[in-house]
Amino acid sequence: MKTFLLPALFTLLMLGPSQAMDKQLSDVDLAAKGKAATVLVEIGQSLGFASAFCVDDRGFYITNFHVVQASGTTVNLILSPGEKAQKRVVAKVIRQDQDFDLALLKTEDTTKLIPIKLGTEESLMETAEVIVFGFPFGKDLALNPGEYPSISVNKGHVTALRKKEGTLSRIQIDAVVNPGNSGGPVLDKNGELVGVIVSGIVGAGAVNFAIPVSHVKKFLSKPAIAFTLPTLTAVTLGDMLEFKATLAASPLSNETYALELLINGQSQPERRFDMKPVGGVYSVKAVPLPGKKDAGVRLSATFADGQISGVVGDLEFIVGARSIKLGEAATIKPGANGLVVQNNGQTLEGPVRKLDAVPIKIGVQTLTVNLCSATEIVVSGMEASVELTFTVIAKSAGKEVARTDGKVEFGGAVSPPSVVTAGPKPALGSSKSSGIASLEELIEGRFVRPAITGTRSTYLKVLSTSGDYIGQGKRYEYDSKVMDFKPAEGLVSVHVDNWRLEIAPGKGRILKVGEYENAKRYPFNDTMPGINFSGNGRGANAIDGKFVIWEFVIQGGKVTNLAIDFIQRSESKTAAPLVGMLRYNSNFK
Question: In angstroms, rounded to a whole number, what is the distance separating the alpha carbons of residues 472 and 467?
Answer without folding.
Answer: 7
